[in-house]
Write a structure and sequence with these properties.
Blueprint lengths: L11 E2 L3 H5 L5 E5 L3 H14 L3 E5 L5 H17 L3 E5 L1 H4 L2 E2 L5 E5 L6 H10 L3 E2 L8 E5 L2 E5 L7 E6 L2 E8 L6 E5 L1 E5 L8 E2 H8 L3 E7 L1 H14 L4 H14 L1 E3 L1 E2 L3 H4 L5 H7 L5 E5 L2 H7 L6 E5 L6 E3 L2 E5 H4 L27 E4 L3 E11 L2 E7 L5 E5 L6 E3 L17 H29 L10 H8 L7 H15 L5 E6 L5 H14 L3 E5 L3 H15 L6 E4 L5 H13 L4 E4 L13 E7 L6 H10 L4 E6 L6 H5 L5 E5 L9 E7 L2 H13 L3 E6 L5 H11 L6 E4 L5 H12 L5 E4 L12 E7 L6 H8 L9 E7 L7 H12 L13 H11 L4 H7 L1 H16 L9 E3 L13 H12 L4 H15 L4 H19 L1 E6 L5 E5 L6 H9 L4 E3 L3 E4 L3 H10 L7
Parallel strand pairs: 1-17, 2-4, 2-15, 3-4, 7-8, 15-16, 18-19, 18-21, 27-32, 27-33, 28-30, 28-31, 29-30, 31-32, 34-39, 35-37, 35-38, 36-37, 38-39, 40-41
Antiparallel strand pairs: 5-14, 6-13, 8-9, 9-10, 10-11, 11-12, 20-21, 22-23, 22-26, 23-24, 24-25, 41-42, 42-44, 43-44
Length: about 1000
């Protein structure tokens, strides 16, 4: 981006330091003055530097410590060109000089027994599926291993003792990603002698050309902080630091003067200054700036989201930090995702529901006549055996923990009677749905224009890559807006999954057509946050945005209301104040409601009256499963964003005792990695006492602030701003931060008093952390001596299980799902929901809607007997994983999906045994039978196939033509006999041509 030697160490800016470092041809070490700097430098260097980059900022845990240790020594030993960015914490750490190393190469022989012994000796844990570092899995010819030293786990496939294939694989999907010819890895936690960072450099630093220390004075202050934490290490810390001061070259980085850069928020100032100097603008919004600065010869614009401005020689470099006054966010790509347990996964002992027999308890799989059957216990000693091909008739029954559902006897009418009664209620509800659908189709609204060039430019300003679900939600919202039908769409997504961006794009689209947009939120805090985010994104487009809440004075409110009615405000953001009778709009075109379930009945009624011919978009984090979409196309449209952003790490939940030392350690751990802490204490009256209590146990340099709903709105806003700007380290607060607080640097939340909070409330609160690139922690404070009631104990267990992302959809209580549906379906359907469980209810409701419309087509049953043993042996795939695969397989109707599943299984579990090959052949035959209308296939002792057909789907002329040509022969009244392989029949049937038909 810049010419060689543009930058010198004498005149260095924080924004230019990565470009200065990247000029070096050999190894460089930078001791940086903050983790934030390391992060910004690292991700810029990733884009422009062609050598190895190692960052050692903080240490999450022991595994992370070893990972960074091995990366450091590997880089110093084997690389010629590299940059090592290290924090003071990294410099005073002790390191091991070596570790046990394993190498693997395609075509080489290796003893799996010896290899497994070595892994166990090194502390590796055997797991059926590898999910974390220091785990391995041996499944037949497949060895999966996630070593300490690599970003991704490896899969090694053997042919006897020979290595046949090596790949990296994705933890989330468990599928292979990239094939390798050879790899090496450090596998152990070397407990031998540890040495200082300086000694590591002396021993392995032959390729180091330069060592720099950034902002020495700041680091001296940080050294004193470290000594305060570890008094016994004082002498050693000072000795290491003195040695660094004597051997590292100092770099003092400047920043553009904050007061002076404020002027660049006025774009006319930039144009004026460009007459006397060259200006380079680095921003994602290149197209927009090209338009704004058209004709300004001294202004160059490049599409790059740099973190802050600087001088490059005589050229002034500006970024969105200076022009828009915002912190520039940069996407970090972390491949893969987070694997979390699917709530619908069936395990032994779980309750399941069969659509014909009701709720039973799953007892495992039994092999009967060469096939797998699910064994289910009903009342008494009654047992049902369900073949795996009928798994689509079974769903996991999810209910409140502690509630045991009613089991019925097989062969009696208990469940059948209940089902018939509920089905008649569902039929009435289905009629209601159809009438709502008809009303919605006839209600005409405003048809918005297609996307403009400005819309494209606005969307390019989004600094992240959209997830697949997010793009689909955006596409559907735009489609609704462009149609002449009134939009009523819910966008449902977990905390931090990108719902606000969907709302922003819809808002921009509406404003481009001259319409006003109303955005309503349940809290002042959330309204304020939305206002700031919208101001940042809409800055370059001359759009008027107003905030109306209790933070405004009476005079300010009157002024905004006046401008709204006269069309002087394009977008208004606020709380339920916006639903008052004195509010009127000149040309309202879109209403966006955030967290609708938090509004009262009156507010909802008012919204209903406002949205008659106005498009409505609702955002919610209350889980609404995708299946709701199928049944309820008529009532409200739903988009579910279920994919986590690519840089999101899971939040770890930890239960801790209400103990001063433990709480101090938790806070100090987060402060130690330059982070911030939320402390949830839901008592307004005891809050000041809690702040004093924390002040006594924490060092004096840690700044504590507090906020609660009884404080004046402006004071709350001020405290939150201080927290966001890093002026407060620990924020003690009530649940007012439950919605909408988005602070990337806060990655620890401590929640006290969980017995008084609901599960969904705790879930929302924990969503306040983990918004950035760091691992986040949610600590739930409990009293070990105190006895909790049954409900609180179950809530604790549920939260402990709540690892991973998308967890809002995967809570172990279906209560959340039922609430999500209740919002849309209404109370009348609650009984049916509880009886059938979620998935079966949706399936039955969908069928009722189709029956009334005359669109219901029952899927014809196919009876297939190929005379082959076809199942998944437990020696090949373990039971809990096997059920997941069966469930996926029986729902597949496309041949390509079945083939892809087979490829995935062989990748994950090794060469398939004959039984599995037979099973997939059976699945392919079944899929083709559905497609072409075959209702029965039976193989006889002569290896001939007897076949019958579904009269509505089959083309009789094709069969007659095949009989005439001798390809098959008639057997019985309505069947045929086919003597070649069954797959050839489908090929011949497909190709068969009949004159006048094809």
């Amino acid at each position: 981006m810049f010419k060689q030697n543009t930058f010198s160490s004498e005149n260095l800016y924080r924004g230019s330091l990565p470009f200065f470092l990247s000029d070096e041809k050999k190894g460089v070490i930078l001791l940086s003055s903050s983790n934030k700097n390391i992060e910004d430098y690292y991700y810029t260097l990733k884009d422009f530097y062609d050598g190895e980059i190692i960052k050692i900022d903080d240490f999450e845990d022991e595994n992370d410590e070893y990972k960074k240790n091995y990366a450091l020594i590997d880089c110093l030993k084997n690389k010629k060109k590299f940059i090592i960015l290290i924090s003071l914490q990294g410099v005073i750490k002790k390191y091991v000089k070596e570790g046990e190393k394993l190498s693997f190469e395609k075509g080489k022989d290796i003893s799996r027994k010896e290899l497994e012994e070595k892994l166990v000796e090194s502390g590796y844990r055997k797991n059926y599926l590898v999910e974390d570092r220091m785990e391995y899995s041996l499944r037949g010819d497949i060895l999966d291993i996630f070593p300490l030293s690599s970003e991704l786990p490896y899969r090694i496939e053997f042919f006897d003792t020979e290595i046949e294939r090596i790949t990296e694989f994705d933890l989330y999907t468990q599928k292979s990603i990239e094939e390798k010819n050879s790899i090496y890895m450090y596998i152990d936690k070397n407990k031998n002698e540890r040495v200082s960072f300086i000694e590591i450099l002396k021993e392995f630093g032959k390729s180091i050309n330069k060592c720099y220390i950034e902002n020495t004075e700041i680091l001296k202050y940080k050294l004193e902080e470290q000594i305060l934490k570890n008094r016994e290490e004082e002498d050693e810390y000072r000795e290491i630091f003195l040695e660094i001061l004597s051997s590292f070259e100092p770099l003092e980085t400047k920043r553009l003067d904050f007061d002076k850069i404020k002027k660049y928020e006025d774009l006319e100032v930039i144009k004026k200054e460009s007459k006397n100097k060259k200006i380079l603008i680095l921003s994602e919004e290149k197209k927009r700036y090209d338009e704004i600065f058209q004709g300004c010869k001294n202004i160059e614009i490049k599409k790059y989201p740099h973190y802050e401005g600087f001088y490059a020689g005589e050229t002034l470099v500006l970024t969105d930090r200076e022009i828009k006054g915002i912190r520039v966010k940069k996407e970090v790509r972390i491949r893969g995702g987070v694997r979390y347990e699917n709530v619908s996964q069936i395990r032994e002992g779980d309750f399941i529901i069969h659509e014909n027999f009701g709720v039973g308890r799953y007892l495992g799989i039994e092999i009967i006549d060469g096939s797998d059957y699910l064994k289910i216990q009903y009342a008494g000693e009654d047992k049902l055996y369900v073949p795996t091909e009928n798994l689509n008739r079974i769903e996991k029954y999810i209910c409140d923990p502690g509630n045991v559902p009613e089991l019925y006897n097989l062969g009696r009418r208990g469940f059948k009677k209940k089902r018939e009664k509920l089905e008649s209620e569902m039929r009435e509800f289905a009629k209601e749905l159809i009438s709502i659908q008809a009303r919605r189709k006839s209600a005409l609204g405003f048809s918005f224009s297609k996307d403009t060039v400005w819309q494209e430019e606005f969307e390019e300003g989004f600094p992240y890559t959209e997830t697949k679900d997010q793009l689909e939600a955006i596409r559907m919202v735009k489609k609704d807006m462009e149609s002449d039908r009134v939009m009523d769409r819910i966008v449902c997504g977990d905390v931090g999954f990108g719902k606000t961006e969907v709302a922003m794009r819809a808002t921009f689209k509406a404003v481009m057509d001259g319409k006003q947009v109303l955005i309503i939120t349940p809290t002042t805090v959330l309204a304020d946050q939305h206002y700031e985010r919208f101001e940042e994104r809409f800055k370059n487009y001359g759009i008027n945005i107003a905030l109306l809440s209790r933070m405004n004075t009476g005079k300010e409110q009157d002024e905004i209301i006046k401008r709204l009615s006269g069309g002087g405000v394009d977008i208004v953001i606020g709380t339920h104040r916006l639903l008052s009778n004195d509010i009127s709009f000149l040309n309202l075109g879109l209403i966006i409601v955030d967290e609708e379930q938090k509004f009262g009945v009156k507010a909802k009624e008012k919204l209903k009256s406002m949205k008659e011919n106005v498009d409505l978009l609702t955002l919610t984090a209350t889980p609404i499963p995708r299946t709701l979409n199928l049944a309820l196309l008529g009532i409200r449209d739903i988009s579910v964003i279920k994919t986590a952003p690519p840089n999101r790490l899971p939040i770890e939940n930890i239960l801790i005792d209400n103990n001063k030392d433990t709480i101090r350690d938790v806070i100090m751990k987060e402060i130690g990695r330059e982070g911030q802490v939320f402390y949830i204490y839901n008592s307004v009256y005891g809050m000041e006492y809690k702040v004093k209590e924390l002040s006594k146990i924490l060092p004096p340099y840690i700044k504590i602030g507090y906020a609660h709903g009884r404080m004046p709105a402006k004071q709350i806003k001020e405290v939150l701003h201080q927290f966001e700007n890093g002026d407060i380290d620990v924020l003690v607060t009530t649940t007012i931060v439950e919605n909408g607080i988005d602070i990337e640097n806060a990655n620890t939340i401590i929640i006290e008093g969980i017995e008084k909070l609901g599960l969904s409330q705790i879930y929302q609160l924990r969503g306040r952390v983990g918004r950035g690139k760091k691992k986040a922690y949610c600590y739930l404070v409990t009293d070990s001596d105190r006895k909790y009631n049954k409900k609180t104990t179950l809530r604790k267990e549920s939260i402990e299980k709540l690892e991973g992302l998308g967890g809002g959809f995967n809570l172990s209580l279906e209560d959340m799902n039922i609430r999500g549906a209740g919002e849309i379906l209404g109370e009348k359907q609650h009984g049916a929901l509880e009886t059938f469980g979620y998935n079966l209810y949706m399936k039955l409701l969908q069928e009722e809607v189709e029956r009334i419309k005359g669109e219901y087509k029952p899927k014809h049953d196919v009876n297939i007997d190929l005379g082959e043993v076809a199942y998944i042996p437990k020696e090949y795939i373990e039971e809990f994983e096997k059920i997941t695969i069966y469930k996926r397989a029986v729902e597949m109707i496309e041949l390509e999906d079945i083939k892809n599943l087979f490829i995935e299984i062989e990748d994950r579990f090794g060469k398939a045994p004959q039984e599995v090959i037979n099973l997939f052949r059976f699945l392919e035959v079944k899929a083709l039978s559905y497609k072409y209308g075959v209702s029965e296939i039976k193989k006889d002792e002569k290896n001939h196939y007897f076949m019958k057909f579904d009269k509505e789907k089959i083309i009789p002329e094709k069969i007659i033509s095949m009989i005439t040509k001798g390809k098959c022969r008639l057997k019985g009244k309505d069947g045929i006999e086919y003597s070649k392989d069954i797959m050839e029949f489908f090929e011949e049937y497909k190709e068969e041509e009949i004159e006048g038909i094809l």
